[in-house]
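COMPLEX REQUEST
Ligand: uridine-diphosphate-N-acetylglucosamine
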Amino acid sequence: MSARLGRTEALSLLSLSLACIGILANTLHGDGEPLIASIAFSGLAFSFTYALIRWLGNAFMRAGLKGKDLSKLRQVEIPETMGAVCAVVYLLTTIVFIPWPFYKDIVAATSGGGNRDVVLELQQVETGRLLHRFPHSKLASYLSAILSLQSIVILGIGDDLFDIRWRHKVLIPAFASIPILIVYFVDFGVTKMVVPTPLRPYLGELFDLGWLYYVYMAMVSIFCPNSINILAGINGIEVAQSLVIAVLIVFNDALYLSPFTPYPHPATDSHLFSLYLLLPFIGVSVALLMHNWYPAKVFVGDTYCYFAGMVFAVDGILGHFSKTLILLLLPQLFNFVYSAPQLFHIVPCPRHRLPHFNSRTGLLECSIVEFKKPLAFPIAEALKLLHRLRLLRIETNEKGEVISSTNLTIINLWLVWFGPMREDRLAMGLLAFQTACGLVGLFIRHRLALWVFTQDNL
Ligand code: UD1
Ligand code: MG
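STATUS: Structure written out below.
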């Protein structure tokens, strides 16, 4: 990869940046238009990330942040941990963005001119509030999101540097979720959930989960980053799946903000909040994908996987749509459950489970885990059953003992179903699947939810 930007690249990035700066300058008049500003900031974030990935690639290699592309004929080393570049640009963008949604509100809620002596009645502020302007208290949530993301980036870089063992690194996101959980506790504290209609006679309309709600939120934060990290190993898949999820959440947010939705809708603010966190994420991720797509010129590193997952977790928790979020992560959930036997070492788990590159055909095939010791009877039977259901492929010896199995990832399963294929076609197939699942998930969320809940909150 050349460390310098080509002429056309440099000119395109420059003109995009200038256009975005122009738009930002315009939002300084009048009401500030935070949503427009957020889009402009995302454009800027894209340009910066794109250029920085190029400029910093060699420095990362020198620092030892590099990896071999295992699915290529020539296994050259390329820079790894480029997600750190994304994350840093993202964090700076979201911090510099703060005045747009919050500044006017600080002034509106006081007697103006920055004086905080006379604070206006909340009622007055609420009703006189401009569309898309946040109450000041939301700033606490916003800052806690930034804190959590910052923590996950530090821990993620640590993992990329020291290659932490799997059983320890699953818990990394739990530490990073502490800031949002604490601020949620101090600031918001709602731990009730809406009860599905059939259960209402027993539990009432709202059920207070109490501290279990915090456990639930911590579990969401552990699940999202790890589930993206284990659906990985072929060029582009980590970033592209995150982009599909982000775009689907943006689509869902837009449903609440469209001119056809009655305003003010109770969920408007939450979904706007979600957009402010996601748009710059899309900006930095597109820049990374352009370098990570097949044939990859950089790797994203665990930093990116954790960071992306945490953006979703934070977004879903603070935007109050964590159940919808899970619907959009169904392929990741399936992959997680499917991987569980290997993750918990019920079945042996090699260091890498990515597909096997056949250098003769240039195609990817399922990777195999061999069982040196015979498996326990129930486990062997379970694998045989899954084999019959075409949910994996095993080999048995003449005694009928299972001697090997395909690795338990959805990527390998795809190859079991559709046969060997080139790396980019495999990624495209999985992404199409992710998109289809997400759209069905959203449909279920907004249509079928009426069966179990009395109303769709749209
Ligand atoms: C996770 C998976 C592991 C998978 C790995 C691939 C589990 C428990 N762990 O481990 O099975 O093999 O991700 O990312 O499911 N690489 C490529 N091509 C790519 C991406 C990565 O060859 O497109 C290789 C490179 O050598 C790179 C390395 O994978 O250096 C990165 O692996 P790492 O992210 O450290 O693996 P884990 O997240 O621990
Ligand atoms: Mg990884």
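REMARKS: The radius of gyration is 24 Å. Residues 111-132 have pLDDT under 50 and may be disordered.
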